[in-house]
Amino acid sequence: MSDRVRELLASVELFGEMLDDEIDDLTALAQIKKLGKDTTVFHAGDPADAVFVVASGRIKVVITSTDGKEFILTVLGAGQVFGEMALLESAPRSASVVTLSTVEVLVINRSDFQRLLDSNPRISQRLMAILSRRLRRANAKMESLAYMDVAGRLARYLLDLARDHGQRLGNGWVVVRRPTHSDIAHSIGTSRETVSRLINEFEEGFGLVNKGKFTYIRENLLE
Length: 223
Hints:
This protein is of the alpha+beta class. The chain has 2 domains: 2-145, Jelly Rolls (Sandwich); 148-222, Arc Repressor Mutant, subunit A, CATH 1.10.10. Helix content is 45%, strand content 26%. It is built from 8 helices and 12 strands. The protein has helices at 2-11, 20-29, 84-89, 110-119, 121-147, 150-165, 181-188, 192-205; strands at 31-35, 40-42, 50-56, 59-64, 70-76, 81-82, 96-99, 103-109, 167-168, 173-177, 208-211, 214-218. The strands form 3 sheets. It has a 4-stranded antiparallel sheet. A 4-stranded antiparallel sheet has the order 2-7-4-5. A 4-stranded antiparallel sheet has the order 9-10-12-11. The longest helix has 27 residues, at 121-147.
């Protein structure tokens, strides 16, 4: 198991330039947990006591309005980090995290993570870059909610999904596992029925094919 944890940590962008002995030290600190589908990893407002790396499966980061409506901020998959922002500012969790499938996560507790940042400035720099990209993505999502129609928001969502989580097949297509239409609707501020209708329209008029739970998108649309 430790070899698998080490390999995963070495592949994560945040830790990608660490020396071998530093990766070994980090591996010794990480604990692996397996969680079932629809499990809440933590709630908004919880103390920030750990940083997480997705080892397998997918999670969603969500906020809930006062009337109980859920809005999905982002979906993360294997090799991606979450829970790190609250650690940097010593604040409670700003959003909840829920599993979308059976998930394995690596857990590094807060004190160990902070010592890691103190001892390795390169990790701090990369963490700032990752957070900056996430902020730009969040700003783009807010902009699309404010100015784009539903079709435009859905198109941007599917293209971002393919860029972040898709697998290039080498034949001009990218395949990505598609979230449920309900989860997509919660991400772009519309109804599940509207998502279903628009995805069917996209399939008829654009370079998009749906097969079961997977969507195939023409690679040139991502450029």
